[in-house]
Specification:
Helix content is 54%, strand content 7%. The chain is an alpha/beta fold. The longest helix is centred in the first third of the chain and has 27 residues.
Length: 559
């Protein structure tokens, strides 16, 4: 050797040599079945490490030796972590494994061990989340899917059938816990929750005689046709909104039913009760959806975050359609938004602008049907498309229904039920604004009532917008503009802008321009009723305060 020196030391003085030797001894002890001694030996070997081997030493030999020792170190770490899990020290294993993954994120064995440790701690949702993170990292960095071992473990965690063999600490040469081989066909069937082996078909029936909405359906079909998750084009989210009775659910169900073949894993449906007295909280809705996906009630996570994580994990690779009907706001919707190839349709009275901003949802705002489509719907419901002699009465009827599908369907039911009724006679009754909302109701069915639909929106208003809504019915303005209305009330424009926008969002006013609104006929009638009820209530309240019992009145007389 020229121009250098050679340092000769006994092997016990070189930590790298000691590390390799102790790893070999641990392997021998494991083969002999002395798992505890092997585990202790590995811990001692790993304790020799202080940073990277040969850090700062240049040259190809140093680079190769650094790589060899690093591989030995992480292989030993995997065996040691497996021993920790087998010894019931899963909480510690989570910390150690997370630190190791931060240094070697591509080692799938470490990802497996993290999932196992989380699962052993009862954190099934977080174990599934760890799989999702591993899958996303591998796809982003290398464009590949997780290997068979990681996928098999994921399936077994979903099914709650993780191999009990992982509790045995095996020889270090095996790479940690007992190998999780790809499941056989019978095992694969067991790895799927029982209720998800059958394709889920939860959609309610579509509307009878769906008419119109051709432009909206064409737009939605085109967006669905462009989706291709495998090529990076995500399945879209659709947000359908509009005033009461306009047919939001009908459009959503029409699209969902005709697209069902695209979603081979089925369709989920949840009524969020947005217009009811008590909208359903996401915690309860997630519970119902997870049970539909095969999660036992006893296995449901106890918090919203845990349920949402498990829900997203179960749907991540599923070709499923989820329809969330009658939503309130983003607080209710956000935990229910899936990931991956699942498609989401949300209906709501209010525009869900948060869905558009956060998730790039495609918003479809519905308005009442056009006169031609409205008349066609009523004619088809009556089974009398060819009766041209009554065309004028039919057109007048649908106009009096505000061209709302809900009102038209109620009208058709009334005509079909009464053999003496006719479009002309019913139209004459509808001309009376006092009676019209009374007639646009199906007795015994609260969901088939125009007044009930409007009441649900009115009931959600706070005091100021509700008072403004009533006041608007009394001022006699055909077009309600912010400047004119604020001047009429003697207040600043900002005081009326937000309430008017809220009324428009809820379908209680129609936007016809920037800062310009108007009532449709049915809503004007309803607003007048609300104003009358409010006036009567105030009068009764005033009267009750002014009447005081005379002294001694109401007391029993004696003597």
């Amino acid at each position: 050797m020229t121009g250098g020196y050679e340092l000769r030391l006994p092997l016990e003085s070189v930590d790298a040599a000691q590390f390799v030797q102790q790893c070999a001894e641990a392997r021998t002890l494991a083969v002999e079945g002395r798992s505890d001694a092997a585990f202790a030996k590995l811990g001692k070997a790993l304790g020799l490490w202080r940073g990277d081997a040969l850090a700062g030493v240049p040259g190809p030999f140093a680079a190769m030796e650094r790589s060899r020792l690093r591989e030995l170190r992480f292989s030993a770490a995997e065996d040691w972590i497996a021993g920790m899990i087998a010894a019931g020290r899963s909480e510690e294993a989570i910390v150690v494994t997370s630190e190791a993954i931060a240094q070697e994120p591509l080692r799938e064995k470490l990802r497996c061990l993290l999932m196992l440790a989380l699962y052993r701690c009862g954190r099934q949702a977080h174990a599934l989340q760890a799989y999702g993170e591993a899958r996303s990292y591998l796809r982003d960095e290398l464009g590949i899917e997780p290997g068979p071992e990681l996928q098999a473990l994921h399936a077994r965690i979903l099914a709650g059938t993780v191999d009990d063999g992982v509790s045995r600490w095996s020889a270090p040469s095996s790479g940690g816990p007992a190998p999780l081989q790809a499941p056989s066909p019978a095992e694969s069937d067991r790895a799927v929750p029982p209720r998800t082996r059958l394709s889920l078909r939860q959609l309610p029936s579509r509307a009878h005689m769906f008419v119109g909405r051709d432009a909206e359906l064409e737009q939605l079909r085109a967006l669905l046709g462009q989706a291709h998750p495998a090529r990076g084009r995500a399945t879209p989210i659709f947000a359908i909104d509009g005033p009461p009775g306009v047919g939001k659910s009908a459009l959503a169900l029409e699209l969902a039913h005709e697209s069902s073949a695209r979603f081979r894993d089925g369709q989920l449906y949840a009524d969020l009760g947005g217009t009811s007295d008590r909208p359903h909280p996401p915690f309860d809705t997630l519970g119902r959806l997870l049970e539909s996906l095969g999660v036992g009630r006893a296995d449901l996570p106890v918090d919203v975050e845990g349920r949402a994580t498990l829900y997203r994990s179960l749907l991540h690779e599923k070709q499923m359609l989820i329809l969330l009907d009658d939503a309130v706001d983003m607080e209710q919707i956000r935990p229910l938004v899936p990931q991956g190839s699942a498609c989401l349709i949300v209906t709501s009275r209010r525009p869900q602008r948060g869905l558009v901003a956060r998730y790039g949802a495609h918003r479809v705002g519905l308005k009442p049907l056009g006169p031609g489509s409205a008349a066609e719907l009523l004619a088809k419901l009556l089974g009398s498309e060819g009766e041209m002699n009554r065309e004028a009465a039919v057109h007048r009827l649908v106009e009096l229904c505000g061209y709302l599908p809900l009102g038209i369907r109620i009208t058709a039911a009334a005509l079909l039920e009464d053999p003496y009724a006719s479009p002309e006679r019913l139209a004459a009754l509808y001309e009376d604004p006092v009676a019209r909302l009374d007639l646009l109701t199906v007795a015994g069915d609260d969901g088939m009532s125009v007044r009930a639909a409007l009441t649900a929106s009115y009931r959600s208003l706070s005091t100021e917008p509700a008072h403004l809504f009533c006041l608007l019915s009394r001022v006699g303005l055909e077009v309600i503009s912010v400047p004119e209305f604020s001047q009429l009330l003697g207040v600043h424009r900002s005081s009326v802008t937000a309430p008017l926008e809220l009324l428009a969002d809820l379908g209680l006013l129609e936007r016809i321009g920037s800062g310009m609104y108007r009532f449709d006929d049915l809503t004007r009638i309803f607003a007048s009723e609300c104003a009358e009820d409010a006036w009567v209530s105030r009068q009764l309240s005033t009267l009750s305060r002014s009447v005081r019992p005379a002294p001694g009145e109401g007391e029993a007389r004696t003597g």
